[in-house]
Amino acid sequence: MIEKIKTWAKQLKRKVFVLYFAYKDDRTPWFVKAFAICVVAYAFSPIDLIPDFIPIVGYLDDVILIPLGVALALKMIPDTVIRDCTVKAENRLQNGKPKNWLAGSIIIVVWIAVFFWISSVIYRHF
């Protein structure tokens, strides 16, 4: 079972890299690029929308949101682009995963805003 999970995770990582190169490809439609950028930015972000330390729910984004986003984006990309980008992705996997600090920063800002909003609600009630 653990081997199956490891294999699934490696395949997902490859698919994220395919998206990474596909959104840069001129043959990819603009609306697919926009969606793929969001999926790749979130997948490469060092910070999750739902922190992993929250029991069960913390891993939902890693197990559900990212694979769902990747699958939807890949269905919208032309097959020729996917084939070309798969080759590029295999080469890039040799060098490791890039980090997307912009997406991480946006998620931090969202959490700070939520914190201040909750604080203001609590402050008004007491």
TrEMBL record:
Residues 33-68 form the DUF1232 domain. GO terms for cellular component: endomembrane system. Keywords: Membrane, Transmembrane, Transmembrane helix. It is a multi-pass membrane protein. Coiled coil: none annotated. The chain crosses the membrane at residues 30-47, 53-74, 101-123. It is found in: Endomembrane system. InterPro entries: DUF1232. Pfam families: DUF1232. Its main location: membrane. This is DUF1232 domain-containing protein.
